[in-house]
Amino acid sequence: MKRQHTTLLVIGGGPGGYVAAIRAGQLGIPTVLVEGDRLGGTCLNIGCIPSKALIHAADEFEKARHWAQGSALGIRVQQPAIDVAQTVRWKDGIVSRLTGGVDALLKKAGVQVLRGWATLRDGKTVEVQPSAPAQGQGAEPRVITCEHLLLATGSVPVPLPSMPFGSAGGAVISSTEALSPATLPRRLVVVGAGYIGLELGMAYRKLGADVAVIEATGRVLPGYDEELTRPVLATLKRLGVVLHLNCSVEGLTEDGSAVRVRSTMADEFVLPADRVLVAVGRRPRTEGFGLEGLLLDMSGRAIKVDEQCRTSMRNVWAIGDLTGEPMLAHRAMAQGELVAEVIAGHKRRFAPMAMPAVCFTDPEVVVVGLDPAEAERRGLDCLHAHFPLAGNGRAMSLESTEGFIRVVARRDQHLIVGWQAVGRGVSELAAAFSQSIEMGATLEDIAGTIHAHPTLGEAVQEAALRALGRAVHV
Ligand code: FAD
Ligand code: NAD
Please, are residues 447 and 460 in contact by the beta-carbon 8 Å criterion? Predict the structure, then answer.
């Protein structure tokens, strides 16, 4: 068996692992990255990017269908049709460009990429079983020893025991299959009204499927505050997505053509389905590569790490979804960069003031920092104000006046501790929200900054002005 030694060995080429490897390469650290599937991980191949591509295609199709009925803008089109196989090819093209770009960036940074499955022998030794031998890699398994081992193996979708993925002849699917449909189902049942269930459930509805959503709790997007989710609920109703809240899934009917559902009222009913998307969460990928042998401290199913992403074993690091919630690509990337810099001797710790989260529903939802309830729970005396997008000229010209922007700030020094927004296009405001919190901005800073007209950003300024009691446009 071929043997090799390196300073840093990264397992997993998702946004956590590939960013860590590129940064380590830039810092002159000899680095090997092992990826068992495709560079870019969940995010680029079967997560963030393909889902946003599909959502965009669905939005465009819905727009065309809407125009076919006549529109206030004066645009008229014939009844549109969609070739979903072409949509998937277009989405795959975006994915290939991005994953190819990651490959090139790793090469440029001098990182050695091995395609294969890694199995841990101990905290310094890993065996790699090549999958598709890359140029010059060979097909022979190899053992790599390292000074630093970085675990970035990501996460996997949580299955429902009563309805495993692939059952009913492949009709029960995860987000992975939902992102590459060969055909569109006539009736889609979605289990889980969280991020994936609503982002993809809405997209499928806009593409023409009848969609029913089953959710265990009493409302959609239960992780977000209720006021923020109200406009999303309104769109679900407008689109005709049927919601079954406070319900649990019992399994499939015997012939596999319908989902058996039980409501908390104890009655059972069936929902006919051609396809069932199970989106009840993801869990860290901790199995199948010998992790248990390291006996690392765990936090539930996730690997426990400190502020520098160190695990309980010296020189073994972990980042991204493997370390638990929030399972977001930008968190994984930030942790990856940090680990490379710490190994290079920089003084860094992972202590962001706020972690932005965006749900790409219609309309989009953004949260950064604390909402009013969370601020109160933490004992902070805060004031908050919101500005409705109905008062924003840009939102009107985009036909997107649903929603609002809310700011939360400490009452004493007006330090901003949180932003929440719901509305079409508000995902692009996440950068402004995060920057203001990281830079310690006060309400006066935002109120006194000139925001370009006409943009949605003016609503950010108006929210701050309103918190100060001097909003102009409301
Ligand atoms: P991953 O991206 O999961 O990468 C891990 C990699 O490790 C994989 O490529 C895997 O093949 C490899 N691997 C695992 N074990 C081994 C082994 N033993 N040997 C070799 N290789 C191995 N997040 C956002 O921030 N915004 C979004 O809009 C968003 N949308 C999403 C939509 C969907 C449908 C899904 C499923 C997720 C979405 N996410 C989103 C979450 C985001 O994709 C993850 O948080 C992110 O990919 C985590 O990065 P990671 O590097 O930790 O792991
Ligand atoms: P989620 O945690 O967002 O939502 C799961 C939903 O399923 C919850 O509402 C939960 O109450 C419900 N649920 C759980 N068990 C159930 C059951 N047995 N029956 C009915 N409902 C049930 O999980 P997800 O949508 O699968 O997404 C997984 C993760 O992927 C997210 O937590 C997030 O970290 C990441 N993601 C992020 C984005 C984004 O940033 N825009 C998009 C997609 C996914």
Answer: no
Q: Is the model's pLDDT at 112 over the cut of 90?
A: yes
Residue 293 CB contacts under 8 Å (≥ 6 apart), including other chains: 120, 121, 122
Cα–Cα distance, 462 to 268 (Å, whole number): 49
Which CATH number is 357-467 given? 3.30.390.30
462 CA to centre of ligand 2 in angstroms: 33
DSSP character string of 38-103: -TTHIIIIISHHHHHHHHHHHHHHHHHHHHHT--TT----PPP---HHHHHHHHHHHHHHHHHHHH
Does 285 sit in the ligand 1 pocket, CB within 6 Å? yes
> How confident is the prediction for the chain on average, in pLDDT?
96
Which residues, listed in sequence order, are joined to residue 409 by a DSSP beta bridge?
383, 416
| CA–CA distance, 158 with 335 (Å, rounded to integer) | 24
Ligand 1 within 6 A of CB of 325: no
2-45+90-156+283-343 maps to CATH 3.50.50.60: yes
The response to whether residue 162 sits with its C-beta less than 6 Å from ligand 2 reads: no
Q: Where in the chain is the domain with CATH 3.50.50.60?
A: 2-45+90-156+283-343, 167-280
With 0.70 as the threshold, say if the pTM is over it. Answer: yes
Q: How far is the CA of 196 from the centre of ligand 2 (A)?
A: 6
Q: What is the mean pLDDT of residues 377-398?
A: 97
In this predicted structure, what is the pLDDT of residue 137? 66
Binned at pLDDT 50, 70 and 90, residue 200 comes out as very high
Pick the CATH number of 167-280 from 3.40.630.30, 3.40.140.10, 3.30.1330.10, 3.50.50.60: 3.50.50.60
Ligand 2 site-directed mutation target among 54, 155, 195, most atoms within 8 Å of CB? 195
